[in-house]
Amino acid sequence: MTTVTGIDVQSIEEVAASLVKFGDRYRRRLFTNRELDECGDRAEITARELATRFAAKEAVLKILNPSDVIPSWRSIEIQRSGRRFEVVLTAGAAVLARRRGIDEFLLSTSYGGGFAMATVTAETAPFADEVLS
Fold it and tell me: In terms of pTM, does the model score above 0.70?
């Protein structure tokens, strides 16, 4: 087994500006219905929560390390589970995780100073890419 880590930082202000500029198109392209429901509709909280989820999705992508086709943003879902977040994969992202021998992600998030941050770790099975390719 190999432990892999992905880290990402996202500007909350940048997400807030994208929400204003692109509105629903931005939301629907990047986030699932569940994610949007969990983030609420208060602008400052929504931007912070979506920035946190976006950073987590980027961190997951760094672990999945797609070489040719990048999975859709919506195939990586960041769900709230009590006070913690969980990573749930579907479609292309789930396929990449299986190829890497990953069945569980650990996610830690934080925000402050106008930024949201996520750190994701996972264990990969040795030689999983070669076996399932």
Answer: yes
